[in-house]
TrEMBL record:
Belongs to the intradiol ring-cleavage dioxygenase family. This is Protocatechuate 3,4-dioxygenase beta subunit. Its EC number is 1.13.11.3. GO terms for biological process: 3,4-dihydroxybenzoate catabolic process. It comes from Actinomadura viridis. It holds the Pfam family Dioxygenase_C. Residues 67-95 form the Intradiol ring-cleavage dioxygenases domain. Coiled coil: none annotated. GO terms for molecular function: ferric iron binding; protocatechuate 3,4-dioxygenase activity. Keywords: Dioxygenase, Oxidoreductase. InterPro entries: Intradiol_dOase_C (IPR000627), Intradiol_dOase_core (IPR015889), Intradiol_RC_Dioxygenase (IPR050770), PCDO_beta_N (IPR024756), Protocat_dOase_b (IPR012785). SUPFAM superfamilies: Aromatic compound dioxygenase.
Length: 221
C-alpha cells in the first residue's frame, strides 16, 4: 500500500479529520468544476518566488540548500507547466505562522514559502534553508523530522496533491506517526530526498534531488 489510510490513530489529527461516512458525490461533472476554477500561468509568479533566501533584505540563518527534481506522471513522462508550491519551518524549527507557538526564534529574513512552474522537462528548483525539527504534541516527547511540504497543482484547485519531502538519515523517522502511517517501507523511502554533489554549489549551498511521481509518491489527496 503506497498511500496512508485516512484514519491513522497514531497521528491524532486524523481521528478528527478522517471521513466517518461514505462520500456523497455532487451532481457536477468535471467540466463544470474546471470551468469555474482558476487556471495558473507564468504571469502569476515572481522571479524570486523559487528562492526562499532572497525574499527579505537580510540573509536568513541556517544551512542553505538547493532542492530540485522532476514532476513525472505514472508513465515517467515529464509534467510540464505544473505549479509546485513549498512551505516549511525555519532553521530553528518554527513556522512563520500565528498559530505556531514553539519557543524557537522566528527569522525576520525567512518566511518559508515559495513556488515555481515546472519546465519542459518537468523540472522544478528551489533555493531555501534546511528546516529544523520541531515539537508537535501528538504524543509524549513528539518531534517531527525535518521536512518540506510540497503541493502540486494541475490546471485547477480541484487538481491538487500535497506531500512532504524528508532528508536522508534523520533519526526521527522511526518515531514519526505521519511517516509511519505509510505501511510500505519502499513507499516511505520515496519521500526521502538524496544528497547530490552535482546540484551542490561550491561555497554556497548543498544540493538535493527529489522526484515527484504522480500515483507513486505518497500523497494526501
Amino acid at each position: 500500500m503506497t498511500h496512508p489510510p485516512y484514519l491513522s490513530p497514531g497521528y491524532k489529527s486524523t481521528v478528527l479529520r478522517a471521513p466517518a461516512q461514505e462520500p456523497i458525490m455532487p451532481e457536477l461533472g468535471p467540466d463544470s468544476v474546471e470551468l469555474t476554477s482558476p487556471v495558473f500561468g507564468h504571469a502569476e509568479l515572481h522571479p524570486l518566488d523559487a528562492d526562499l533566501t532572497r525574499r527579505h533584505p537580510g540573509e536568513p540563518l541556517g544551512e542553505r540548500i538547493i532542492v530540485t527534481g522532476r514532476v513525472l506522471d505514472g508513465a515517467g513522462r515529464p509534467v510540464r507547466g505544473a505549479l509546485v508550491e513549498v512551505w516549511q519551518a525555519n532553521a530553528a524549527g518554527r513556522y512563520d505562522h500565528a498559530l505556531d507557538r514553539h519557543q524557537a526564534p522566528l527569522d525576520p529574513n525567512f518566511t518559508g514559502a515559495g513556488r515555481c512552474l515546472t519546465d519542459d522537462d518537468g523540472r522544478y528548483r528551489f533555493t531555501s534553508i534546511k528546516p529544523g525539527a520541531y515539537p508537535w504534541r501528538n504524543h509524549p516527547n513528539a518531534w517531527r523530522p525535518a521536512h518540506i511540504h510540497f503541493s502540486v497543482f494541475g490546471t485547477a484547485f480541484t487538481q491538487r496533491l500535497v506531500t512532504q519531502m524528508y532528508f536522508p538519515g534523520d533519526p526521527l523517522f522511526a518515531y514519526d506517526p505521519i511517516m509511519q502511517s505509510i505501511p510500505d517501507q519502499e513507499a516511505r523511502d520515496r519521500l526521502v530526498c538524496r544528497f547530490d554533489l552535482d546540484t551542490t554549489e561550491p561555497e554556497w549551498a548543498l544540493g538535493y534531488q527529489w522526484d515527484i511521481v504522480l500515483g507513486d509518491t505518497p500523497m494526501e489527496t
